[in-house]
Structures are given as C-alpha cells and as structure tokens.
Amino acid sequence: MSPLDLAGEELRILTPCGMFGYGIPVEHFKRGMGRDPHIVIVDSGSTDPGPYQLGLGHTLVSRSAYMRELALLMDGCAEKGTRLVISSAGGAGTDAQLDDMIGMIREIARARGRRARIAAIRSSVAKDVVREGLRRGRVSSCGSAPELTETDIDETVDIVAQMGAEPFARALNEHPDADIIVTGRAYDPAPHAGFCMGRGIDPGLYWHMGKIIECGAACAEPKGRNILATIRPGSFDVEPMNPAERCTPTSVAAHTLYEKTRPDLLSGPGGTIDLRGARYEALDDRRVRVSGSAFIPSQGYTVKLEGAAIVGYRTIFIGGIRDPILLGQLDGFLAEARRRTEVLHPELARGEATLHYHCYGRDAVMGALEPLRDRVPHEIGLLGEITAPTQEMANAIAGAARVVVLHMPYPGQICTAGNFAIPLNPPENPIGPVCRFSIYHLLEVEDPTALFPIETIEV
Amino acid sequence: MPGDRLMDLARVLRSKNSGPFEITFDVIFDDDAVYERVKGSQALHTARMAELFGVPVDDVIVCMFFDPARAFKLTLKRGWAQGSVGERDTFGAQQHAPLLELMIP
Questions:
Q1: Cβ contacts of B62 on chain A, cutoff 8 Å
Q2: Which residues does the UniProt record annotate as the domain DUF4387 (chain B) (predicted)?
Q3: Structure pTM?
Q4: Which of A40, A176, B20, B74 would be a feasible disulfide site paired with B25, CB 3.0-4.6 Å?
C-alpha cells in the first residue's frame, strides 16, 4: 500500500497522538483507521523534560504505557495492513531505548502469534565522530547553546543525532515489506516528510504538514490526539479524528508558535520551512486546507546532536516557614544560614558543591524577575537543593544546611524551638544524579543517511 | 498610564522552552481589532522586552508579530541551564508573568 508515485492522488497520514505513551483515545484511533490511512506515524521523543533522559537512560513514560499503546497501534495496523512508524523511541532515542522498544514489539507480536518485520534505524553517535567534526570546524551551536568543547564531549554519557527525512525515505523504500519502522532520535516531522518525499509533492507542504501533525491534534480546539492529514501536490488538509475537536485557520496557523523560536521560519535537517506565504483556508468548521508553504534547502546538510552529562549528585530538604518575625527578614536569615553552612562545608565556598534555597510563595518561580518579591508572605515553602560530586557529600551538606535553617537564631526571635516545619522524615532525601545538556549542536554531514544505519529484524 | 493590561486583551499568554537554551512567549488574540490595536501600539518592541525580562538586548532572539495567527512572539536566551543545578522551571511554563500586566494604550 505504498506506491512510489501518487501524483494526482492523495496520501493520508494518521498520527494518533503527539507523544507516544501519553494516551491514545481508542475510538478516535479506530475512526482514523476507518479512513484507510497509507501510514500511521507516532513520535516518541522530546528534550523538553530535561537532560535526565539522555544522561540517565530514563524513558519519558513507563513501560506499561508503551506496551498498552504499542498493542493498540500494532493491532490496528495489522488488521488493515498499514505500515507503522515510531520515531525517537523511548524519549531520547538512544540505542538502548530503541532496543527496548524493539523488545516490546517482539513481546506483543509473540503474544498475538503474529509475524512482524521491523526496520530499525539507529541514531547513537560515537564520541570520536563528534570530536573529529569539532576539529574540522563542522560543529556549530544550535538554538543559543554555548560553544562546544572537547571537555563537553568527554563528559557526555550518550550522544544521539536527529535524523532528517532521508533515512525514513530509505527505510520505507528499501524495505517495502517492513510492517513497523522504529527509530532512534529523529527530527519530529522527519517521518512524515520521509514518507511523502519523492512523490511529486512540494517539500514545503510535506514538512509543514509534518510539523503540524507530529504533535497529534494539538492544533485543534480543544487540543486533541488523533489527527488525519491528507496531502497532494498543491495542498494538504488537517482534520481531528475526535468529532468534538475543530481545526480552524487560526488554530492551525498558531501551531507553529508552540515551542518554536519563531513561527514563520523553521530550521531543520536539510533546510528551512518558510511559512511566510502559507495560506490557511477553512474547508468546513473542522477541517483546514493549507497551501503556499515553501522549503528553502540549506547550503550544507546538518544534523542536530544531543548529549547530556552528569554534573553531580543531589540531595534535597523541604519545609515551611510560618513565623512572621522570621519571614520579615528572610533574605538576611538565608544569607547567614548559607555563611554558617559554608563554614561547616568549605567545599561550598570553593565551588565544588552548590546550595540553592528555593523560596516558594516568594520568588521560587520567577527568581530575580519576580515583581512581588518584596511583599512579605504569610508562609513560604523552602526547598534546599544541594549538588556535590558524590551523593555522600551532598547528603552531608544537606544535613548541615537543614540543621542550620532549623535552629539558627535571628534578631527578634521569640519562637526558639525551631524555625522550620518539615513534612518528610527523614528530612534530607538523596535524589540521585543531576544532568546538563552538554551537547546541543549542529554537525555538518556529507550524506544525510550515513550516521543512521538501518537493520531489519523478523519477529 | 491609561489603557488595558495585556492579560485582559489576549486569549492565550504563555511561556515555554524552545529547546534547552531558549525560552519563548506566545501572546495570541482572538479578535482582529484587538490584535491590530496591540500591534499598532508599539508597546511590544525589543528594547521594552529586554527591560521587562531584565536581559541584554542581544539576548532577545525574536520579537515579532505573526499575522496568520494574530499573535505576538518573543524568544529570549535562557538565563540558566534547563533541568540542571538550580533550575526553577524545567518546562519554562511559568515565566510569562511580566507580560501579564504590561499596559497597552
């Protein structure tokens, strides 16, 4: 069901949700399958939850959530003979997460007594490839990241590259018998673009379509999950599969604002989507037709690299302060508490470890930008965050810091038994490694598919 | 200053990460006249945004209007590392407060 040239015809793509594992409404998925999509595509990745996924190998959602949704998608697609694409497996898209996803597919296929042919595309990148790129001046910062250094590369746990459309097009074309294409890290709209590539459709249209529906029906009002795109050489239509949701020209246009640096020019592997000439037209009160989107190929071809490093180990304590005499002098109190903790643990003053006080109810969210920072609250929640090179050191500093906050005297004190209401017991809690994004950079490559080997697996 | 607060004119006013090193703000209006009034007021410009968020002008990556969605878009460099030591807002989802009370003549 994937003819190579559909010029004059239409391609239908179903995306059942914006993030694999967040929940697929079954009824709307079935309605989508009833429209005979040529392919089902779901994205599983994001950097938004922070660097811990890459640094620690954690997945975005639980294994049971993946199993539930995989079973639904595999059954629905097997029944119709529709190909299924799952990109950025596990959240970060590392080799280990991809292998876990393949294992889950295997488990479900076995339980159903069904054969499944899988094409898997890997995206883990060896450190030497990045070092070599850095030395040859082929690495540049992406999205306001600081310049990359050799130290950053050394400290990084795992590196992945975001594949563009070409590896998907290759896997789909070279392995026409594969039922399921499951991949490591990918640019979110890349599977949609890879499926449409080379079929006489303008790249601006298929990239724009991918950008919109990779988020499921987030472009609808109210926001939803299952969405069907119908694309042809001159335009594409989007339609949410929940009859209670509507796409409008404004809601669809507004979608490219979300989590994007700017809404009209969107850079990715191979070029930039230019929406300055895009037109959004209501077909009825739930469907929108888009045309006029353009794609500007870039000079060289770059892929985005992502990597995370472990920067230390964290221990926290949490509690509340209610005494108005203390709250009236909180800044002075915490400055003195910090000084006393630093006397006990000189590694803080030396910069080997850090102590942050987060004052909820005052400025924990906005920091120095909080306009109401000087208003004395009736109560604050204090989170003490300690990061050190080892968990033991973080625990020791947290213990000392918490005792200082609890018992340190202050001017005018009449509450002499303790300054701090502690909900948790034990009061200090080790919460493990802390990560940082150490690599968020573009690497120039000769061949868009070279970093992304394809293998086939028969289950 | 007479006028209206931005929060009373916008239908959507939000902040969110745009990648780990930027934070982006969307202000979306549901009425053409209100949108044109805000756009024409010149109240939302780069220097004012830098002042409002306490960042150098060079850290304002994008400050623009986007007519197809009746929207104002602002993107700033993130002043601190996402999801790392001392993080205040991993998703950047609650950093929009300075825009709420901005007065539009």
A1: 261-262
A2: 6-102
A3: 0.93
A4: B74
Is residue A270 within 8 A of residue A301, CB to CB? The reply is: yes
- Token pair in block for residue A445: 């490559």
pLDDT value of residue A2: 42
Among B53, B82, B101, beta carbon nearest to A369: B53
Residue A4 distance to chain B (closest CA, Å):
34
Buried-state track A84-113, b at ≥16 Cβ within 10 A, e below 16: bbbbbbbbbbbeebbbbbbebbeebbeeee
* Residue B25 one-letter amino acid: F
Average per-residue pLDDT for chain A: 96
Whether residue B18 and residue A143 make contact (CB cut-off 8 A), yes or no, is yes
Assigned CATH for B4-80+91-100: 3.30.70
Question: Using an 8 Å Cβ cutoff, are A303 and A162 in contact?
Answer: yes
A102's enclosing H/E stretch is helix A95-112
Contact B85 A312 (CB under 8 A): yes
CB contact under 8 Å between A51 and B82, yes or no, is: yes
The stretches in chain A having pLDDT less than 70 are 1-8
In this prediction, residue B1 has a pLDDT band, given cuts at 50, 70 and 90, of low
Q: In a mutagenesis test of the A interface, which of B13, B32, B61, B66 is the best target, namely the one with the most A β-carbons within 10 Å?
A: B66
Q: What pLDDT score was predicted for residue B2?
A: 77
ipTM here: 0.94
